[in-house]
Structures are given as structure tokens and as C-alpha cells.
UniProtKB/TrEMBL annotation:
Region described as Disordered: spans on this chain: 1-24
The keyword Nucleotide-binding is assigned to this record: no
Protein name per the record: b(0,+)-type amino acid transporter 1
Membrane-topology annotation of the record: Multi-pass membrane protein
Subcellular compartments: Apical cell membrane
Cited Pfam families: AA_permease_2 (PF13520)
Length: 496
């Protein structure tokens, strides 16, 4: 091995990447700093929000809101109100994201407001369970609808859907490891695809309305439920369809001009999703009665069969596109949380390292992908994520509370966006309801098991994060070095 190769190998090991040496001229050439690059513009930011929020739910089974509201009118009003609430919540995140311009979603805000312990419990729960299991569920949905045409009249074998899901995870992780820009292009393309099919469905609905298909809509409030609990559950399910409005806060450090583009992407993206959800539901009601919609296994497919034949095949095709795009967005943001928590010492250091050639958080992305593949092995992963979902809203509520706390404890911080504090208070109350509602409605031991898992992270926090025991650091040092050389990754340069 020549001297230049030895020196470059040592520099990679030590994280020194300030210069490159041309093997012919021996001249030092400056290279880019080893940090994640600001490759995400306004359009890509909007596509990340829209593409992650709109998954398969609005196409396959937007029935829960109708079931609990009891009639078309309240159903449409609840979809609209949920969009307003999601926008208000995202505005709280706009203030936090422009005040603390760090990636990682809720993590840096919880760290600043409540300290290391709360931020660690968030990263422990989200990195180990919420993000990879969500990634796995989306790819399983993709695999199911991609394989169904090859098994007409029956359900695809489980081994086929799981193998296809694992292949999709491998492909998406590979794309995200190769290039941030390539991942953005993929996200933009699939977001455009899902908006196209929404335009087709809404356009067909407008034509049917013009032709007088208003039977279901004419008596919109007949059968409205008077149960406060049922209306509450309708809101609960509607807000879950809007989940994903915080995705841009996971990549704040990679966003060009975050003080402008973060709030602007939120103000464009989330109202756009809200309009799409309401208009798509209106289109469904022009073709189906409430009973038919509740009985349909895949509402958009039923709509396509009745309205778009013989081109009805485009609906399941674009559902596949939609789920793949959502999976890509989920992978993109999940890697950033693992990267930031590794950088802060709450996860192993190797997760915070960056590819020397690609400038992507390669170890964090691979770690998330491996966990996702492990999560597709169990028979029913949906049960797992349903029980853990209450934890997600607990962290949303804590983040809104963090905004209120920092109004008093961190008054000196510059706030380019400042929302009325009553909005943050409203989000705290909504989050408390969404945490308690499923537990009160149907208390089960699984919620206790999930809570025990969340706090079991303290068993690792005290020795490895708080005390920083020497034997653990000595054990991890050679492992980190070999993984670093294997993946050609280096520590990130210290952020200014």
C-alpha cells in the first residue's frame, strides 16, 4: 500500500477530510465539509410533507371517520377540522424549527426544554420502534397491492408479500444511502404521481356532481351521531390520517433557507393535503352510499371500477406508487433522527457518521432498514404499532408544551415565526385526549407493556449515557473503527 493510501486510510479513520490529494500532482485540493449538505429546497420540502402524509389510507379505507360520525355532513366537517388542527400543530413546529435549527424532529426541542432524559426516551422509542415499524408497515402495504394482480381471486401468499416488502426496504435504503438529491427526486416523482390520481378521482367526482349524482350528499346530516365519545373517536381517526405533518423538522439542517422554506412548505403542504382529503371524500360519496362505502374493502378501487372502467387498473397502480413514496419519505426522515441522537451521545456514535463520498447518514439509514426488515417477520406488526401509537401523541404533546415552556425559559432565542401561545395550549389538550382516548375506550395490558418498554430505556441511559462507563467505550472503540473503515464513513464536523 503506497504512502497516499495509508494517509487517506488514517484520515478516514480519524475523521480528517479537509483536503484530498491527487495521486499524480500531489497537490492538496479542498473538499466539502463532512456535514449533511443543504440539498432540500422548497419544492422538495413540500413533496416530503405531502408525500409522507398521503399514504394508502385515503385510497383504501377512509371509513373510520364516517363510521363514528354517522353521516356524510359531519364526516366532511371532521376531515376539514382535522386538517385545521394539523396545520395549527405544524405551525408550532414551524416556530420551534426556525428557533432551533437542528434536525431530528422533536428531539432537539425536547432536549432544550426538558433536558437530556426526556429527549433520550423519545429517541429510544422512536428510533427503536416507531420509525422502523412504520417503515415496515408501509412497505408491507406496498407489497400487498403490488402482488395482488398476480394472484387474481385470492390473497397473495405471506412469504411473497414479506419478501417483496424486504426488497422494497433494501431498494429505498439504497437510494437514500446513495444520494440525498436522488432520494428527493424519488420523493418528488411519487408525490406527483399520488397527486395525479387524486386529481383524476376529484375530477371524476366533479363531473358526476354536475350530472346530478347528489343522492348521498343531499341528506348529508341524516343519521348524525349524538355521542360525544363517537365524535371524539372520529377526530382520533381523522387526525391519524394527517400524521406526518412534522416530517420537515427532521431534516432542518439540510433545508435551504429554513427560516423561509420551513414555514412556507408547511403553509402550502398541509392545506393542500386537507383539500385533497375533503374533495376525495366528496368524490367517493357521488358514487357510493354510506353503506356501500363502509362495506368496501378498498374504497378507491371500488370507485375506479364504477367510474374509470376500462382504465380502473390505474387506481391500484397509483396506490402502489403512493405507498412507495410514503415509505421513501419515512426512511429519509428516520435516518436523520438516529444520526442526531448518535451525535448527541444517546445512540452509538457510529450512527452519527457520514459517508465520505455520498454525504449521507449511511450507518443510521442502514440501521433503520435492518430494524424494519426485522419488524416484517412477525405475523401481525399492525398490532404492535397500534399499541405504540399513543406514545407518538404523547411526544407531540410534550413538544407543544416545550414551546410554551421555552417562551418563559428561553426568551432570548430569536423566533422568526411566533404563533399565539393558545395554539400550543390547544395542541397539548388534543394530544392528551389522543393519548388517553384509546386507553379509556378499550384498556388493555399491551399499553402497559409498551409503557414499560419506553421506560426500560432508562436501564441503558444511566450507565451508558449518564455515567459513560469506560468499559463500554473500550468495547465500542474497535467495533466503531472497523465499521467506519468498512462503510467509509467519518464523524460529522461540529456544527457552528
Amino acid at each position: 500500500m503506497d504512502e497516499d493510501s495509508v494517509r487517506r486510510r488514517k484520515e478516514s479513520q480519524n475523521g480528517c477530510t479537509g483536503y484530498s490529494v491527487d495521486s499524480n500532482t500531489k497537490d492538496k485540493q479542498p473538499v466539502k465539509a463532512t456535514v449533511l449538505q443543504k440539498d432540500v429546497g422548497l419544492l422538495s420540502g413540500i413533496c416530503l410533507i405531502v408525500g409522507t402524509m398521503i399514504g394508502s389510507g385515503i385510497f383504501i379505507s377512509p371509513k373510520a371517520v364516517l363510521l363514528y360520525s354517522g353521516a356524510v355532513g359531519p364526516c366532511l366537517l371532521i376531515w376539514t377540522a382535522c386538517g385545521v388542527l394539523a396545520t395549527l400543530g405544524a405551525l408550532c413546529y414551524a416556530e420551534l424549527g426556525t428557533m432551533i435549527t437542528k434536525s431530528g424532529g422533536e428531539y432537539p426541542y425536547l432536549m432544550e426544554a426538558f433536558g437530556s432524559l426526556v429527549a433520550y426516551l423519545y429517541s429510544w422509542t422512536t428510533v427503536m420502534v416507531l420509525k422502523p415499524s412504520s417503515f415496515a408497515i408501509i412497505t408491507l402495504s406496498f407489497a400487498e397491492y403490488a402482488s395482488t394482480p398476480f394472484y387474481p381471486g385470492c390473497t397473495p401468499p405471506l412469504v411473497v408479500t414479506k419478501s417483496l416488502s424486504a426488497a422494497a426496504i433494501f431498494l429505498i435504503v439504497s437510494v437514500n444511502c446513495l444520494s440525498v438529491r436522488l432520494a428527493n427526486y424519488v420523493q418528488n416523482f411519487f408525490t406527483a404521481a399520488k397527486l395525479f390520481i387524486i386529481i383524476v378521482i376529484v375530477g371524476a367526482g366533479i363531473v358526476l356532481l354536475a350530472q346530478g349524482n347528489t343522492e348521498t350528499l343531499s341528506n348529508a346530516f341524516d343519521g348524525t351521531t349524538s355521542s360525544v365519545g363517537a365524535i371524539g373517536l372520529a377526530f382520533y381517526n381523522g387526525l391519524w390520517a394527517y400524521d406526518g405533518w412534522n416530517q420537515l423538522n427532521f431534516i432542518t439542517e439540510e433545508l435551504r433557507d429554513p427560516f423561509r422554506n420551513l414555514p412556507l412548505a408547511i403553509l402550502i403542504g398541509i392545506p393542500l393535503v386537507s383539500v385533497c382529503y375533503v374533495l376525495v371524500n366528496v368524490a367517493y360519496f357521488t358514487v357510493m352510499t354510506t353503506s356501500e362505502l363502509l362495506l368496501s374493502p378498498a374504497v378507491a378501487v371500488t370507485f375506479g371500477d364504477r367510474v374509470l372502467y376500462p382504465l380502473s387498473w390505474i387506481v391500484p397502480l397509483f396506490v402502489v406508487f403512493s405507498t412507495f413514496g410514503s415509505a421513501n419519505g419515512s426512511c429519509f426522515t428516520a435516518g436523520r433522527l438516529a444520526y442526531v441522537s448518535g451525535r448527541e451521545g444517546h445512540m452509538v456514535k457510529i450512527l452519527s457518521y457520514i459517508s465520505l463520498k455520498r454525504y449521507t447518514p449511511l450507518p443510521a439509514l442502514i440501521f433503520n432498514g435492518v430494524l424494519a426488515i426485522l419488524y416484517i417477520i412477525p405475523a401481525d406488526i399492525n398490532t404492535l404499532i397500534n399499541y405504540f401509537s399513543f406514545a407518538q401523541w404523547a411526544f407531540y404533546g410534550l413538544t407543544a408544551l416545550a414551546l410554551i415552556v421555552m417562551r418563559y425559559t428561553r426568551k432570548e432565542l430569536h423566533r422568526p415565526v411566533k404563533v399565539p401561545i393558545v395554539i400550543a395550549g390547544l395542541m397539548v389538550l388534543v394530544s392528551c385526549y389522543l393519548v388517553l382516548a384509546p386507553i379509556i375506550d378499550k384498556p388493555e395490558l399491551e399499553y402497559l407493556y409498551c409503557t414499560i418498554f419506553i421506560f426500560s430505556g432508562l436501564l441503558l441511559y444511566y450507565p451508558f449515557v449518564h455515567l459513560k462507563v469506560n468499559w463500554a467505550r473500550k468495547l465500542m472503540r474497535p467495533i466503531t473503527m472497523h465499521l467506519q473503515l468498512l462503510m467509509e464513513v467519518v464523524p460529522p464536523e461540529t456544527a457552528e
